[in-house]
């Protein structure tokens, strides 16, 4: 929101209470109204004529103000690349015209001087209508601003199409609360009781919806921090692995390799450890494939066989190149590890299946034994 659209309505509404209080005491004085009366009083000595002149003049001034303000703001908006300021100018026409016309009603009322009670009531009523006019304007302007921000990812990552309803409703609640406070101030009501009631209701709602609010705020932080995005493969500390299909305000949904959808509350995700297999410098993923051979096997030949199989695998990337590591001399055999990269985490299962098949067939052909646990039992005669 621009300073003009925020400061002017609030300052006018703040002055409403003072004007209404003055009218209630039997006198009607305001710097703007006094200047308007001074300009119109030389036209006639009849109060009704002056009141009518005030109304006509307010309509003329409203049209001129709308024309001048519109042309000036359009010239400034033409220098920007966003559409929000153009939309703001369109929304600004009606409240400017209506505010000036209602100001003319107050000037006309000052000429007629109908009495303290009537003047006080009409003054409060006019200022209430002005407050409602600007409330509608601010609601529409804030909605346009948030929608524009949500459609541009480079502005604020926390505000995006799926979080737009949350922030739009939050803005509406704040604006309506301020508008209600202004209306209560205009009519001179006691704010203490209202604030106490609002506090009690807020506490009751907070306790009743504690889990829901926890998931809601966690969802906002997940979207703002962006540890993962829709389409990423993630692994939770519970062992669940899958592709993110939706990030909502209350929960996040994963699609596993078994085509089973898992719904996880955002409070669980926000408080847990997440491994994003799709993040990093590139979306590619490294696969570690353990291979064990019997003692006495030709390890140089084994290295060449594993590298040859990895280079021949279509799912394996050429860069980074596959590599083989001798990890340990275990109890039952020699443990090697073949490491290679695939383009996407979703290819991990297919790549492991193809590699295991090719390695087993090749080792069988080459006569390289794959060890497995053995136990020799000796029987002795007693």
What can you tell me about this protein's structure?
This protein has 382 residues and is α+β, with helices and mostly antiparallel strands. The chain has 3 domains: 3-152 and 164-188, no CATH class; 223-276, SH3 type barrels, CATH 2.30.30; 285-366, Alpha-Beta Plaits (2-Layer Sandwich), CATH 3.30.70. The protein is 58% helix and 13% strand. The chain has helices at residues 3-24, 31-40, 47-77, 84-112, 116-150, 164-186, 191-208, 210-225, 266-270, 299-312, 348-366, and strands at residues 233-236, 241-247, 251-255, 261-265, 274-276, 285-293, 323-329, 334-342. It is elongated and about 135 Å long.
Structural class: alpha+beta
* Structure annotation, total helices: 11
Helix percent band: 55-70%
Strand content: 5-15%
Number of strands: 8
Counting structural domains, the number is 3
Low-pLDDT runs: 1-10, 23-28
Radius of gyration: 37 Å
How many angstroms separate the termini? 98 Å
Could you report the average pLDDT, rounded to the nearest whole number? 79
Order the strands across the largest sheet as they lie in space: 4-3-2-1-5
One letter per element, helices H and strands E, the order comes to HHHHHHHHEEEEHEEHEEH
Largest sheet: 5 strands, antiparallel
What gross morphology would you assign? elongated
What's the arrangement of secondary structure elements?
Layout: H1 3-24, H2 31-40, H3 47-77, H4 84-112, H5 116-150, H6 164-186, H7 191-208, H8 210-225, E1 233-236, E2 241-247, E3 251-255, E4 261-265, H9 266-270, E5 274-276, E6 285-293, H10 299-312, E7 323-329, E8 334-342, H11 348-366
Antiparallel strand pairs: 1-2, 1-5, 2-3, 3-4, 6-8, 7-8
């Amino acid at each position: 929101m621009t300073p003009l659209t925020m400061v002017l309505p609030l300052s006018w509404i703040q002055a409403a209470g003072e004007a209404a209080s003055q009218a209630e005491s039997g006198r009607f004085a305001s710097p703007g109204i006094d200047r308007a009366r001074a300009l119109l009083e030389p036209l006639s000595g009849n109060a009704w004529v002056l009141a009518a002149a005030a109304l006509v003049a307010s309509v003329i001034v409203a049209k001129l103000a709308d024309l001048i303000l519109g042309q000036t703001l359009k010239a400034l908006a033409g220098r920007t690349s966003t559409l929000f300021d153009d939309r703001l100018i369109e929304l600004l026409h009606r409240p400017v015209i209506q505010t000036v016309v209602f100001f003319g009603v107050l000037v006309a009322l000052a000429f007629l001087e109908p009495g303290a009670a009537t003047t006080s009531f009409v003054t409060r009523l006019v200022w209430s209508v002005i407050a409602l006019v600007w409330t509608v304007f601010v609601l529409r302007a804030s909605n346009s601003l948030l929608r524009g921000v949500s459609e541009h990812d480079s502005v604020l990552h926390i505000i995006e199409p799926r979080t737009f309803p949350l922030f739009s409703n939050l803005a509406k609640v704040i604006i309506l609360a301020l508008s209600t406070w202004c209306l209560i101030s205009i009519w001179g009501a006691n704010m203490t009781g209202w604030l106490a009631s609002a506090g009690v209701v807020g506490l009751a709602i907070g306790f009743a919806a504690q889990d829901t609010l926890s998931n809601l705020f966690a969802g906002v932080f997940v979207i703002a921090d962006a540890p993962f995005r829709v389409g990423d493969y993630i692994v939770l500390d519970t062992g669940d692995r899958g592709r993110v299909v939706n990030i909502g305000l209350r929960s996040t949904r994963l699609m596993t390799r078994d085509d089973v959808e898992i719904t996880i509350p955002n409070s669980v995700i926000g408080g847990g450890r997440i491994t994003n297999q799709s993040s990093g410098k590139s979306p590619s993923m490294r696969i570690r494939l353990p291979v064990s051979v019997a003692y006495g096997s030709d390890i140089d030949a084994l290295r060449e066989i594993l590298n040859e199989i990895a280079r021949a695998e279509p799912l394996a990337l050429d860069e980074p190149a596959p590599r083989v590591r001798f990890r340990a001399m275990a109890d039952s055999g020699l443990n090697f590890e073949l490491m290679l990269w695939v383009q996407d985490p979703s290819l991990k299962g297919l790549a492991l299946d193809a590699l295991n098949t090719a390695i087993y067939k090749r080792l069988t052909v080459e006569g390289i034994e794959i060890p497995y646990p053995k136990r020799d039992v000796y029987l002795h005669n007693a």
